[in-house]
Amino acid sequence: MRFNTLYFQASRRFLTSLAVPKRLPFGVLTGKDVGFFENVVGKANVRTQELDDFNKDWMNWYKGQSKCVLFPSSSEEVSAILKHCHDNKLAVVPQSGNTGLVGGSVPVYDEVILNLRRLNKNYSFDSSSGILQCDAGFILEELDDRLRTEGFMMPLDLGAKGSCLIGGNISTCAGGIRLLRYGNLHANILGLRVVLPDAKGSVVDFGSPLQKDNSGVHMHHMFVGSEGQLGVITGASILSPPAPTSVISAMIGVQSFAGCCAVLRDARRFLGEILSSFEVMDAATMQCLEENEQLHNVLTSSPNFSLLIETSGSEAEHDEAKVQCFLEYLMENEMATDGVLAANKQESAFMWKLRETAPLSITKDGYVYKFDVSLPLNHFYELSDAVKERCGDKVHRVVTYGHMGDGNSHLNITTKEPSFEVENLLYPFVFDWVVAHGGSISAEHGIGQMKRDYASAGKSECIGDLARSMKKVFDPQGILSPYKMIM
Ligand code: FAD
Ligand code: MLT
Ligand code: ZN
Known about the structure:
The chain is an alpha+beta fold.
């Protein structure tokens, strides 16, 4: 079998005006490599045909040209593969659920795809300590379901929970809808098993399955959010919180963004430790849900902003009284146009359906320019207004939803077709604006291919130099996920 280098042209439908880095002088996959991989993982777990679903990302923005997808089922298999790739200088991209939104999980050229979905055998949970130890290839929702049978849950939740894998979540330091209460993954990951792309394919346990361990440099944190640039995560020890016995959802209509900030301030005061989600959807999001999904807001006042809040506690009566009292306070003080308290699980599920369908609903407009930024709250919605003014009627919609309680705005601009003109209006304008207003160009989705050229925005040169040096230590041949976050 021979694969021709001439075909290696990166293809993408996103940010088409930016240059793609040239293919680096990596090896080219041969029949001999494929034979080696078949020996390691078995013939059935090496795929060389019908690879489209693995080569393209969830948004259908990027399409790589890998000729081979591998499905290892153990750290030992991953180790043998990475050692071989190191020795033959074959580039590799780790892939979990392939739900990433920045083109990180797909090849840029012909990188071998290391799909980790079969890495889902080992699972153990200690219900006294709340510590879960598992392989990295479990689906997030499956882990959550298993933990709930013992009265616990995963410390994170996101719309892609039915497809994303825990290794992918850790590699992106996924945020989601419960971060406000349970913290980000740096707070909950205690240890990681990682396979390095070095001459030995070293299998290393960083951190440990212990709550407290100050016996060395806390290196496991470097893999949380490093997007597969330093090693392949094959296992994790995770601190899992007890599942709440009382969960209450409510939606609140507010006319101004300053008003939303006031509601957040008072939600923290009234609801304290039980406040677990504080999400925002603007009127354009609601209109998009109506038009593209026929989903109607539960709020009838047609507010400019619909807030979805949730509490997670253990005393239903007490929690309900607190939420009720909070809603009454908002109405009495004319801080809300209307409010709806979910009367049961179905009503709560519908409120979350509105929020979690937002990412899919915008894709039905045709084309989406997606941003995921962190901003100080006083600038959170100013950005959306600035973009509306800048783009005018050249775009179909400017939609903002997001994890307002974490200062995380998901600003999405939709058009019917990809447009150079709109691209040039948005890039680098949005990123420059965010950096100038004290924000971050990626709150939770990461850098991947999409923000590669802007990764250094607002950071000192020293940080980039250190990241590159670190990559060299872990990945001496630079074979792991090239052309992405660390360049
Ligand atoms: P993939 O997409 O397969 O990979 C993501 C990155 O991690 C890639 O760079 C890949 O190379 C690397 N990687 C994957 N597995 C490993 C591994 N085992 N070792 C080393 N590197 C690895 N994200 C949020 O943060 N919050 C949200 O609320 C949220 N909601 C979403 C809703 C929808 C509908 C969708 C489609 C996506 C959403 N996302 C969200 C983005 C995405 O789901 C997350 O980034 C998720 O954590 C990716 O997990 P995955 O298993 O799909 O990883
Ligand atoms: C979300 O919060 O819905 C996700 O991060 C996905 C998105 O931004 O569209
Ligand atoms: Zn999000």
